[in-house]
Amino acid sequence: MKKTVVGITVVGNDKEGIVAAFTNFAFSRGGNIEKVNQNVIKGLFGMYLEVSFSKRIDIKKFDSEIQGLAKKEKMDVSTHHETNSQKNIAVFVTKEPLCLQTILANAKSLKGNISVIIGTENTLEPIAKKAKIPFIVIEEKIQQKAEEKIIEICKKYDIDLISLGRYMRILSPNFVWRYPNRIINIHPSLLPAFPGALAYAQAYERGTKIVGVTAHYVTENLDQGPIIFQDSFKVDPNDTLEKIKTKGQRLEADTLLNAMKMHLENRLDVRWRKVHLKSK
Fold it and tell me: May I ask the CATH architecture of the domain 87-277?
């Protein structure tokens, strides 16, 4: 019998005994802890447990009981079950359309369903409407309040994977820790290099001969998450900045799409902050 793997995320105010409470819960249900990662930042506690079960378990009962523990410990807990069914995808956007357009144009090739598009403004809403996908604008400027709304939306649509299609907001640990290795971002350089929003301008000014793009998982450390997929293109000495940006943005979209496909096809395994390709 194939083992069942359950991912458990625990987020809340830091206090003693939380790790023991949830690891003991997993052990008492016959689980074997395969991965554990915990962090504390400014009194905020976050933990990810990956628990495997060699015997059949009642998933609904397990989820219900762990929510009872969450209530007792005053923590926000969610579980993620690896299944063969299609994953639900949320795409986060601001106003650059190419990543979103590329994802939507290739939606049928993804082993997942694009369930919702979340924007910081309504610029790309017509693209979502044409694709008949719900588009929700979060206009809240205070990031903590904006993320509270986004968390509720992701729960409503039972989101498995979040794709940042040139989403111009920095996600806090409070959000990121809820989706460990399930948020994919695109960066317009071969990380780590030329950080920030003006990556193409820096590359142009330095006379870069090759410009790269990096797709990576998002962690609490900006642009430092495990690298999934990278690609590059050569720069002609006569290329203008606008031509480099056009080439780069096209490659960003393709690289993000490739990373999403690899994740959704369950081809990736993250160990020691490094992405490994699973052998077929």
Answer: 3-Layer(aba) Sandwich (3.40)
